[in-house]
């Protein structure tokens, strides 16, 4: 029996001799499904496989030596996007760069369902609002979903660029909605789900859409439900993937569920998905160039600063190794290694929880050295942005440098964060901005006009957090090279975490930028390599 294809109810029916290796490959294809019996016309076929009728599936079937029927060929052809830049939008209070005009054309070509993967500082906010202005007469109601810290910024930007008033929603107790443009944060969107669905928004803008990577979270389910009837769904992010390709599926489903319809098929094909002894594992990366091409052809508009600005500042990265008193660190490390031996099959969450005290000690042990380095740096007269992870580190540094420092962290209101940012930018005597990465790495614009130096006292496990943090200074308006310093406790977990996020960034680039890499990154696996 030869390998043949048939069109069956808008899907591809496969006929082939039993071959376990071939079945393993077919299972990874989009929409793969086994059926014990189907009726195709007057004929009944038994024990068949079906896959979605997509051009990418057809290409893969050709590689597997299947005969492709003419009906399958015609049904699977992908219609090429005809992108026509939109340079002028009536009523928009801005002149668009050529790439922003192109992005508007891309949104229109994708019928208002796009992932704007534009680097921080390239104008994602302006571009998305320009499209809302463009279609306002036909689709007047817009919901904007954002991080809590940037609600005020979006309200100001909406008024500035398109001259529209907006209503910012607060608290989890719903009340009357009385504006066409509504702004809400992720934390309370589930509490407002019923009211937001009833308001029937035409358009939804989701800033930092990578925050919806978890399909099981309440916020993701709520946003997906709200977006299901919207004409326009724009996902905005400079970092589409936080740490692994599997995190793309949920945002893509929210924007346009027709591109990838089956999560398991997606994960088998693009995330090296497999059934392990601990359950389903989709933490890897595979066929990344193919995934990049599909995203680019169907939903993703990608622009980096270096692609569009000839004068983008160079980033100088420097590691600053410091010695520490190892007594307490080595004790905690020994405790962790003993725990590891006794819990060889521990879950990822358990490992990360148990290793947390070691991370904190590595930071606390270098605190004095960090303070000394900052003191020396301040003698230069220049300003410095300091990124931390743990609240107690922010508090310790504020206690030490409070006379010349301000801060942005999760304890502050959005207005207080804006006030502190303005103080850092405009007050010549305020030399330090100290904050945690989660609060300081997104929605804070303007520091680039006053500073080109940053220090990472700690890092998270996510490369996107690092990139977003760097982009607070490496953005439009920066006139100098950006100096990025990492202060590292010698021979501790510190340096390993930095190595891991740099490795993971290469994998992310393989999908977002279309570069093929021959490595995978597993946070826990890579961390455990440093232990006995």
What structural class is derived from the secondary structure elements? Answer: alpha/beta
The oligomerization state is single chain
Major beta sheet, strand line-up:
7-8-6-9-10-5-13
Taking the sheet with the most strands, its summary is: 7 strands, parallel
Radius of gyration: 25 Å
* Total strands: 19
Distance between the termini: 54 Å
Low-confidence stretches: none
Average pLDDT taken over every residue: 88
Number of helices: 21
Describe this structure in words.
The protein is an alpha/beta fold and 532 residues long. The chain has 21 helices and 19 strands. Helix 19 links the parallel strand 18 and strand 19 (482-489). It is globular. The relative contact order is 0.10.
